Amino acid sequence: MRKRATIYDIAQEAGVSTATVTRVIKQDPRVKAATREKVQRAIDANAYAPSVTAQNLERGSAKVLAVVLPEMSNLYFSRIYNAAYWEADANGYSLRLFQTRENQPISREMVSELIRCRIDGVLFAGNIWSSDRRDLNDALERLKNYMPVAAICPPGVDLDCIRIHSDLVSCVRLPVRHLHTLGHRHIAFIGGSMQTKDASKRKYNFLEQLRLLDLPDDPAYHIEAGYDMEGGERATMRLLSSLERGRWPSAMVTFNDLIALGAMKALKKMGLHLPDDMAVIGCDNQFFCPYTDPPLTSIDLHPEEMAQSAVRELLLAQESSSQSFSMIRDATLIVRESCGAALGYRKME
Amino acid sequence: MRKRATIYDIAQEAGVSTATVTRVIKQDPRVKAATREKVQRAIDANAYAPSVTAQNLERGSAKVLAVVLPEMSNLYFSRIYNAAYWEADANGYSLRLFQTRENQPISREMVSELIRCRIDGVLFAGNIWSSDRRDLNDALERLKNYMPVAAICPPGVDLDCIRIHSDLVSCVRLPVRHLHTLGHRHIAFIGGSMQTKDASKRKYNFLEQLRLLDLPDDPAYHIEAGYDMEGGERATMRLLSSLERGRWPSAMVTFNDLIALGAMKALKKMGLHLPDDMAVIGCDNQFFCPYTDPPLTSIDLHPEEMAQSAVRELLLAQESSSQSFSMIRDATLIVRESCGAALGYRKME
DNA sequence: GCGATAAATGTTACCGATTACATACTCGAC
DNA sequence: GTCGAGTATGTAATCGGTAACATTTATCGC
Lengths: 349, 349
Fold this sequence. Notes:
2 copies of one chain form a homodimer. By secondary structure, the first copy, chain A, is of the alpha/beta class. Chain A has helices at 7-14, 18-25, 33-46, 52-59, 75-90, 108-116, 133-144, 170-181, 197-212, 229-241, 257-269, 303-320, and strands spanning 64-70, 94-100, 122-125, 149-153, 162-166, 187-190, 222-223, 251-254, 279-281, 298-300, 326-329, 332-334. In chain A, helix 1 (7-14) packs across helix 3 (33-46). The N and C termini of chain A lie far apart (75 Å). Chain A has a 6-stranded parallel β-sheet with strand order 2-1-3-4-5-11, with helices on both faces. Chain A has 3 domains: 7-50, lambda repressor-like DNA-binding domains (434 Repressor (Amino-terminal Domain)), CATH 1.10.260.40; 64-167 and 303-330, Rossmann fold (3-Layer(aba) Sandwich), CATH 3.40.50.2300; 170-301 and 333-343, Rossmann fold (3-Layer(aba) Sandwich), CATH 3.40.50.2300. Chain A contains 12 helices and 12 strands. At the A-B interface, helix 4, helix 5, strand 2, helix 6 and helix 11 of A face helix 4, helix 5, strand 2, helix 6 and helix 11 of B. Chain A binds a DNA duplex (30 and 30 nucleotides) through helix 2 and helix 4.
């Protein structure tokens, strides 16, 4: 490895002081043209580039934001990461990704690490709201001493930080109303683990919607599921096998597209034809939705925009010191064919 | 924001020198128990944590590796990232992700950034081998002055750095032989852009396999495609519409699972039934493969293991200064139902 | 109780930049 | 020729740690 030239080397070679070298680099106008050239030559000759580390130390900040996410098996999180990355980039910040091991929420060590690294702001997303209330609050309070904290979280999570809420009302209301419009009356909800705030909120909203639309609510129709395809498959099998054929729902709202994918597989295995025998709606509008069979109607929560807002607010909070901000981004229904709507299909009972 | 305590504050509060504070933190055994306690109390009282930036400056390295990837729309890359992340983590390094904007290969600025940040090693993966030879080599040479460089790349890319090759022979040989065993004789290849090394290599290997197995080679059977589902869908439509029905192939090998997904959609749209009318094989063994309809037979290139090896070699190269290493990780065929094999199906012509 | 050795702690230069302040140089006016 | 204003450049403290070396204190043999 080549030894890196320091500012001292350059200063010496150009026969000036380090201050002058800095001035040349910073394009300070009050250096004589002749000097500037001398210095520039030395810089070029040695391919000199100032050490970011040293600059960071001097500046007292590394201009880094952090985002804490569960391992990115789910594309929903890469969308958040990507959006945050470019937004940070556009503001001269870099973004460090901290991953939590599966279902492990923020650990004590991670909090320490964030503080030790002089992170300038941190964004949390994903399944950390389920962790013990006290632990979470402690972690948050500790962090907030040193950096602005933002979270993409379900509404109602009353964390004392910048909060960007996904719209858990519309993300259930939209599919239910859509199905209702199509004539469905027996609608099931395949949710995540009711331990998590997100899932239990959605279930609550789901029941609310049924009531508002005067739809029957069969307790057998809401069922927990792991957050992936296998979870969806199992839950669906459980749902169908627990009921006699006549009492099966005619439509399913799922917690996310992965679960929907698993559900679709289970339904086909049971010999059902989609969307005629069963309508399915996913959530997250993942890239594969147009390519499932039939193409999956889904909900877009706009994770990119949420991440972008979060980063912007983090940067703003650096100066303003006000760390209370809360916004809610509404969801959008993306209609495809898994409910038959696009086919002009209408359920009759 | 709270003012952070420095080592001087702690030293003062505990009535010792900074050296002693460092010793306590580093668990140096030659501090008296009484002193240790005094210091520890001061540390705890101020929630003191040494500044990573200052440590980095002193150490002359930030213990960071970097991985340069195209934006992670493709799960293949998140798998590489994840594996690299944990491997780095296990060795006390952190991992910074640098993303290239779509199809833009490594830019001059990114190289500068990597150098300025005193990155301790960099791993490249993805579609950068297509970029101009000279530019790429220049970038590599520049980087190699300052850090070990590794690349996950197709075999035959004769970059002068640590090379982890995916097995582009088996990743075509396996599916072709599999299809051949099942009785297929008319096999098409839906590849990526022939501009890229990866895709052209595979096509070459594909033709080689046909020859070895004495299978007919119809030029209409190899066709370019964008790297995503839309690309696969379009390419498939093009393939089928360019031939009269009687000359259609009975099986398709695709560049990746996304393309396969698109192809499957196109095939269904044409009224073909899988796997009876057409067998399809993907590549990458992505998470959704078991959940396509029918479940997609695919090739696993083991990106995790490649990333792991790459990180290990990067860390090794730091001392040994030998930067020539090359290994090839073979591929594995994952048989599902999209070729009918699992159903005991056999093609007869 | 003294010197020799070991144990505990302190002093200070250094890592590589930035910047407030000090100094030197230039030029025109008188 | 000298003074002052402005311009160009240099000096040195600073950021927050680390560690080689120096110094002080404790321990032990005789």
